[in-house]
Known about the structure:
The structure holds two protein chains of two kinds. By secondary structure, chain A is mainly beta. Chain A has strands spanning about 5, 10-15, 20-25, 30-35, 45-50, 55, 65-70, 75-80, 90-95, 105, 110-114. In chain A, the strands form two sheets. In chain A, strands 2, 4, 5, 6, 9, 10 and 11 form a seven-stranded mixed beta sheet that branches. In chain A, strands 1-3-8-7 form a four-stranded antiparallel beta sheet, with no helix packed on it. The mean pLDDT of chain A is about 90. Chain B has one domain (about 10-110): Immunoglobulins (Immunoglobulin-like, Sandwich), CATH 2.60.40.10. In chain B, about 0% of the residues lie in helices and about 45% in strands. Chain B contains no helices and nine strands. In chain B, the strands form two sheets. In chain B, strands 1-9-8-3-4 form a five-stranded mixed beta sheet, with no helix packed on it. A four-stranded antiparallel beta sheet of chain B has the order 2-7-6-5, with no helix packed on it. In chain B, about 35% of the residues are buried. The model of chain B has no long low-confidence stretch (mean pLDDT about 90). Chains A and B meet through strand 5, strand 9 and strand 10 of A and strand 3 and strand 4 of B.
Amino acid sequence: EPEVTQTPSHQVTQMGQEVILRCVPISNHLYFYWYRQILGQKVEFLVSFYNNEISEKSEIFDDQFSVERPDGSNFTLKIRSTKLEDSAMYFCASSYQDSGNTIYFGEGSWLTVV
Amino acid sequence: LAKTTQPISMDSYEGQEVNITCSHNNIATNDYITWYQQFPSQGPRFIIQGYKTKVTNEVASLFIPADRKSSTLSLPRVSLSDTAVYYCSASSGSARQLTFGSGTQLTVLP
């Protein structure tokens, strides 16, 4: 079964440092997403991306966050200056269609900010 | 986006059928109902999706009454490996903002 892959699986970074989380969505999918889950809390939507631009973003996705699809396969989430409260599991996801279609999630990247 | 309400937790024994009900009173006409499963430290995994009546796949069944204000995920003959958090979502036609509530922690006991 095709899957979304994410790297790294775990990253520890110092507060104020920049972090890039990488994702390879399923190859024929057109819509890409980032979610996050703080330990013990709900999965929260961050951003969706289609046709090389952001489609929607939540209030969590402020100016310190950015997304990019630098080539035909990777989809990245950059956090410019990390804060302690950015510590969370970040999930990349993708789907073929946008309307009522199944979203496939990756295994997540666990970010710890110290 | 319809708000969903599920039980916080449920216990079951191996081999039993488990039914988890979700209420979504303000579901919109074009909302689909989707259920996801999440194991600790893993991403949510799609289980089943439906719009009305009954949907069945190799993993589960989804029952949706005519008024669509609730839905029931049915897991036949659960095993220990079905212990996970189960999320119900009633999303608009757009999948862009799939929302997860608090989910139901299902614990399957031997």
